[in-house]
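re the bet — no i am not wrong, look at it urself. input seq straight from the record:
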Amino acid sequence: AGLLVQMGTVAYTVTKHAARSLAEWLAVTYGDAGLHVACLCPQAVVSKMTAGGTGVAGLDGMIPAEAASESLMKALEAGTFLALPHPQVGDYVKRKAENIDRWLAGMRRSQAKVLAPMLKSQL
């Protein structure tokens, strides 16, 4: 969370981006003082929020909370900043950084494909 956009929910997207930015700030500000910060950025995690199974959260597969916490612990042990329990997220972020305009266009196409049927079913 906080590396990509969560289609259909602005509040979730911006709060996750804010949390990631805070983690980056902490790492920059206090890293030389010995504070190691790891930022957990999963896609969908099985929880009460995702229990309905509807929505775009599970497009790349949901993982249990234990798998997310294992990823975070590995990042802390390795001294790395990002904990990515869904490894494909790293590829998505690289594509986004390489060509943001192409990435935005692709996200709009995905949104039209994924959200349109869900919105119709809610009418």
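see?? Strands lie at 39-40, 82-83. told u. also The longest helix spans residues 100-121. so pay up
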